[in-house]
Amino acid sequence: MSSDLPDAPDEQPAAPAANVERVRVEDEMEQSYIDYAMSVIAGRALPDVRDGLKPVHRRILYALHEMGVSSGSSHRKSSSVVGETMGDYHPHGDQAIYDTLVNMAQTFTMRYPLVDGQGNFGSMDGDPAAAMRYTEARMAPIAEELLEDIGKDTVDFTSNYDDRLTEPDVLPAAYPNLLVNGSTGIAVGMSTKIPPHNLGEVIDATVHLIDNPDCEVEDLIHLESNPGPIKGPDFPTGANIVGHNDVHKAYKTGRGRVTVRAEYEIDREEGRIVVSELPYQENKARIVERIAEDVNEGKIEGISDLRDESDRDGVRIVVELKRGANVDVVENQLLEHHLESTFGVINLALVDGQPKVLNLKETLAEYVSHRKEVVRRRSQFELDEAEDRAHILDGRLTAVQNAEDVIEIVRDAEDRDAAKEALKAEYEFSEEQADHIVRIQIGSLTSAEVGEIETEYEEVQERIDRLEEILGDEEELLDVIKDELREIKDEYADERRTNFVADSGEVTHEDLIPEQDCVVVITDEDYIKRMPVADFEPQGRGGKGIIGADPKEGDRVAKVFRANSHDYLLCFTNRGKVYRLKTYQVPEMSRTARGNHIRNVIEGIDDGEEITAVVNTDDFGADECITMVTRDGYVKRTCCEEFENILSTGIIAASLEDGDELVDVEVTDGTRDLVIATRNGMTIRFAESEVRQMGRNARGVGAIKLQDGDAVAGMVATDDDDRSLLTVTKNGYGKRTKLEEYSRQSRYGKGLIDIKTEGRNGPVTSVKGVRDDDHLMVMSEGGQIMRIRAGDISTVGRNTMGVTIMEVEENDRVASVTVVPVADDTESASEE
Length: 832
Hints:
Radius of gyration: 44 Å
Structural class: alpha+beta
Number of strands: 42
Mean pLDDT: 89
Number of domains: 4
CATH class of the largest domain: Mainly Beta
C-alpha cells in the first residue's frame, strides 16, 4: 500500500555527552541538601560575628548609604528604600525586606535602632506596620558608625546577584553590633538567639579584652568577686532578669536560658498590681487577653478588673484586686503564667563563613580581630593617599620655586604632552607631578603659595609618620581601636534598662495556693473535697450546723479531718496502707458539692479502701514513731523514718488479720501514754513504752481486751498536759473528761468505763485530746457540719451520759470529729 506522506529523514544519533558521571541518588540528594542548607545559613539566616548583621540588614543599610539617605538627610519613602535594596542587592521579595526595615526601626525590638522611621512602624501589641508606601525611613546616626570608612578599602566587596554592582561582604562596624543589638534567626537545622546588651558595657568589655587578651570570661562579666563590665543582657523593653547564674552560664558556654520578669509594683493599700515593663518580645495585648481568659475561667482568683492604660510614654497594665484577695497568690499566678518568660540564648554566628557557637570572650575576640583588619586597611589606604599627596606637593613646591622657568617651558612647548615631557626632563618630575603642574592655574605659582604648600606638606608628612607608626606597631593600632570605641561610647551610650532581681526559686504550683486551714471530707463511696475552715462560723453547742457536703443517695460522710493547704499528709487506710498527699491536691469545692472521686487524687487506692486516719508530716521529729491501733484492739509503733519514701501507689503501714481494720494513728515520741477508746464506751490507758518498735509489716500487740461485739473507736496520745479527753457518740452526744481521771494500767487490760452508750447516746464515733480554746468540726453522715468551741462542752467525770453536742436528724448520725487549734485558725483567717 502506497502512502502520500513524504519519506521521513534519516534519524541522526544523539551526540554523546562530553562527560557522564554516575552518582547514587541518595548521595546527590544529601550533597544538594547540604549545599542548600549552607546557602540559607550563610546567605540569609545567621549574622556575621564581625558586624552582627544578616545579609538583608547589611544590604538595606548599604542601599541607604548609596542613596545618600543618611541621618542628616530627609526621610525617604520606605517603598523607595525597599525597591533600591531589592533591585540592586537583595532579590528575595519586597515584603521580607520591608519587614526587616521595620524591625530595624522598632524601639521595642532593637536596643539601638539602626533605622530612623517616620510613620506607623507597629507596636508592642503586635499591630503590623503600615504599608511601605505610607512610611518613611532614613539611617539612624548609630547606623552610620557601622558604615564609617567603608570607602577606604576597609572591607572586601563582591559582585551583586546580577554582576552590575558590588556590595560589601561585611561592614566596618565601629562597635560590636552583634552583642549590642543581638540577633534572632532560624536556619536549616540550627538557630541563633542573641540578646541585646548595653553599648557602654560592651565597649568597656571590648577595651578590657584588648588590654588583657589572656583574660577569662569571668573577667568580662559582673560577679560579686570581680565586678566586670558586662552585667547581662539589656533589653529595649526593660524588665528584670531573675538571678545571675543562668546569665553567667550563657556567657561561658554560648548557650543558656535566661528568665525575664516584668517590672511591676504592688499597691497593697489600694489593692492593685501595676505592670510598667514587660519581658522582651512579649505581645502586650496578648498578655492582657490571656490574663482576662484565666480570670474568666477561674484559673486566677482575686482579680476584679484589668485595664491596659499604656500610651506612647510606656507600658501600664493595671490589675485591680478583689477585697480580701491574697495579693501574694495573685502575684505568683501572674508570674507563673503571664509576667515571666524565658529567653533561650544561643550565641551562634558565622565565623569565616561557618556557623559557630561562641562564648562571650570568643565573640568579642572575633570582633577585635575584624576591627584590627579594618583599621589596618584604612590606615594603609590613608597612607597611600597621604604619600600621593606629599608627592604632588613636593612637585608643586619645586614648580613654585621655579615659576618663571616653568612658565617658559610650558609656553614654548607645542602641546600639553610636550610640556609634561619637558618638565620631567628639566626637574625630574614624575608623570603625576608633571600632569598636575601643567593643569594648575598660573595664579597658583605665586610666591604666596609657597608658605601654604610647605605647611600642608608638613601636615601630610606628620600624617604619614603617624600612619606608618600605626601600621608598624600593633599596640598603636589597638590604641586607635580603643580611642574610637570610647568616642562611640561617649556619643551613644545610655543607662541600663534591664535590672536584676534575686532568684527566689522557681514559682511552683504550691506557691499559687493560698496557705489556709481546711477541712477535708471523705464519704463512704470515696468522694473527697476540701473547704476553708473560715467558711464555717462557730455555733453554740446543740445546733444542727450547716450543709458541709451533699452526698449522693446511698452515700454518707465517713471522715472529716483538718489540715493546712500546704501540709504533706500521710493518709492511712482501713486496710493498713499509707499514701502521701499534699492537701492542696484535694480539690477545693463549695459546701454543697459532692467532691471528686478519691482515685483522681490518690493513685492506686483500691475499691473498698477508706482513709481512716491522717498524720501531718510536719509533726515528725527525731526518733519519733507512728503509733497505730486497729479495730480489733492491736497496737504497734513504727519509726517515722520508714515512711519517708512512699510510692505514689502507697506502701504497707501495718499487716492486718482477716476482718481487722486500721482505725487511728498518732505521732508519738516513746514517752507518752496511749488512751484507746472503744465504741461501747470503754477506755484503757497505758504507757507507750509497753509497745516496742516494729517494722511496717508487723501486726502489732494487744492493746485492749474487747468484749463481744465491741471495737476500737479511736486513740489519743497524752502526756498529762492541759488537754482533756473529748468523747463523741453517733447520736450527737459527748463530754469532756480530764485525762488525769484515766489511771494508767498495763497494756491489754479490759479498761475502764468512759461514757455510757446505751439509750440516747449510741456508740462512740470519735475521741480527741482537746484544750478549752480549741474549735471542733463535727460532721454528720448526711453532710451537716458544725463548728463549736471545745470549751462549750461540759467537763464531767467518767461513766456519764454527756450533753448534746450536735442535733442530728432522725436518720442521720455523727460521722467524724476533727480539732482546729484556735491559733492555726487565727493565722489562716488573718492571711485571708
